[in-house]
Amino acid sequence: MKQLARLFLVLLSIHLTAQTSSIKNSPALTEGNPSEQGMSSERLDRIDLMLSNEISKGNLPGAVALIARNGKIVFHKAYGMDNSESGKEMKKDAIFRIASQTKAITSTAVMMLWEEGKFKLNDPISKYIPQFQAAQILDAFNEADSTYITKPAKNQITIRDLITHTSGIGYGMIDGDDRFRKIYAKAGIIDAFTSKKILIGENIKKLATLPLHHEPGEAWTYSEGLDVLGYFIEIVSGMPFDEFLRTRIFEPLQMNDTYFYLPT
User: Which of 13, 74, 222, 255 is the most exposed place for a label (fewest CB within 10 A)?
Assistant: First the structure.
């Protein structure tokens, strides 16, 4: 009985220490002196010079740089133009597209649903998006007209594969393999932001019919797997992807300037 009691206490201790508090209140960043925070003013000046030079050479239209340490801002400057055509200068509170950093936010949303027991990481994505059931791998490609021949994949794409870029899915216009750039373009896959009125589900269902680079789970290929997970989040949560991010992540974190498309 004592051994069982000890085992229970050990397991309880592990459980308690393994949990990470989901809500932490971090103080707002405030201005600070670089040297007082262990930062070199001389080296920060090099960053200032480098960015100024890149702007003057025309290599960058504009930029904003912020460096903080110990909760203190030790470097924060704006450079160049926000909009060259209208002559709008860059400001320190300018809003930028974060591009593929959206993948980190999408992965967070996926894992939130996983914590709620909505699915298992090794579930095949076809369980939720049936169009992925008949996964095919590219076998031959015709350069003349971008037609191709495929062979059936032995493995199913899992949710884990999609998060870790091991699904075999390609990346269209930025794919390292020119064949996949052509295949995706011909199929009309949307790879980045667009003003077209298309639902994420429409795009992903088309993507599901296209060939893979390799067997799922057997290699790493930077992919649109996180786009697939955006649609997966809609299916599992019952909410539009942007609405899920807004209500479950952005609003709780007071990320009030983060959207797919900024409202007026």
Answer: 13
Other residues' Cβ atoms within 10 Å of the Cβ of residue 188: 11
Please choose, from the candidates 200, 228, 199, 198, the residue with its C-alpha nearest in 3D space to the C-alpha of residue 212.
Answer: 228
Beta bridge partners of 147: 142
Q: Is the distance from CB of 145 to CB of 110 less than 8 angstroms?
A: no
HSE of 191 in the Cβ direction (CA atoms, 13 Å)? 18
* Structure confidence at residue 19 (pLDDT): 45
14 inside domain = no
Strand duo 72-83 + 30-31: pairing: parallel
Residue 141: enclosing H or E segment and its boundaries? strand 136-142
Output phi, psi for 32, to 5 deg.
-145, 165
Instruction: Tell me, yes or no, whether 172 and 245 share the same domain.
Output: yes
Q: What span, in angstroms and rounded, lies between the C-alpha atoms of 20 and 98?
A: 27
Q: What is the domain extent for residue 240? A: 101-250
Q: Is the pLDDT of residue 8 over 70?
A: no
Q: Which two tokens stand for residue 86?
A: 């209208």
Residues 80 and 111 in one domain: no
